[in-house]
Amino acid sequence: MTSEQDAQAPHRIHPSAVVGPEVALAPGVEVGPFCLLDGAIQIGARTRLVGHVTILGEVELGEANVLHPNVVIGDEPQDLAYSGGPRRVRIGARNVFREGVTVHRGSERGDVTIIGDDNFMMQNSHVAHDCRIGNSTIIAGGALLAGWVEVGDRVLVSGNCVVHQYTRIGRLAMMRGLSRTSRDVPPFCIMDGTHTLRGINVIGLKRAGIPSKSIHALRHSFTALFGTRQNLKLAVERFTKSTDAPPCAEVTEMLGFIRTSKRGVAFGPLDDRASDTDDDSEV
How far apart, in whole angstroms, are the C-alpha atoms of residue 45 and residue 29? Predict the structure, then answer.
């Protein structure tokens, strides 16, 4: 079947599924056994609900998503202040939600939880209310994102990581397994332990097509800013005054991220164990 024929195919609903009257299914949608869809739900073409999937409330799902068993999208936020008001979830296209993933709707003080395109949410990962997830991220098994977390494009959050509410994780950053942060993680960096930066995510940058010259500049900037524990605001000022040449776009992005942090930025290491070797970008 061609993609055009697939887009025009009728949706298929298993007899055991429960689909509410407000649900809108685009052509080619598959709703598998024992799914529950209840609310103002829109599901894009060729999206597949494998089985035992629950979608509640006001939810928009784009095209060609795959939801595996026991995924729950749009349930009420885990927020004691929430009183049941209308809140939303908006999800883009071509995302994969593996077994047991949960994505909650916006909170009493928020509005919408947003997930972009081409993300891979592994088993039992959790996206809380009002999070903003970019594109092409990997949120590995057991990782927990609290409310209002922002995750940039192509971020890797490894297994069983925990991210405090309101924390930002910059583009192409990586959190190593079992790590935790209540501080912002700058773009392009590797973090482990308790918000401790270890180096630049070299393999991730190479895979993303970032030029070698930019990677070298990022390594230099990391050493200047995070090579030793110091006042980061003063370190940024010294670094920007230390060269007459304008920084590359990636270094400019990192500096801008640091300057706009409200929670504070993750620390550099206390010792000389900083590492950005090629094996640091694996899950």
Answer: 6
